[in-house]
Amino acid sequence: MEQEKKPRTATVIKARAFLAAYRATCNITKSAQLAGISPRRHYVWLEKYPKYAAAFKRAQVVAAGLLESKVIEGAFDGWTEAVYYQGQPCGEVQRFDLGGRQMLLRGAMREKYGAHVEHDVHGSIEIVERLTAARDRLAKTAPPA
What is the pTM of this model? Predict the structure, then answer.
């Protein structure tokens, strides 16, 4: 009986380590490395253990919040980049994630900044008739075999 508990305990420990790493990194491969498992093991656990799958869904919510905070940080605070002239540092410039700003605006003010696409299809395409006519044209212009 004790031998059955050891593998399960080790699995639980590694699963918890993976989930903690995923919440912090938002990266399955990196989380698997940090937990000492292969990324494939994570997918096996998702299929095999419903409790693990539920815990991973909760971890995804936390990870998504982390990603969102990083996008906001890049859009508003930006980052400092060194400027070089003739190979020598001569100053710094502040860069911002403008694509992140656009994405945040589209989410926050969808009516104003979201995509305005209308899918309105009228008429019909007579594909069979067009193909038949094309074959007839080809038959008239092609030399006899």
Answer: 0.64
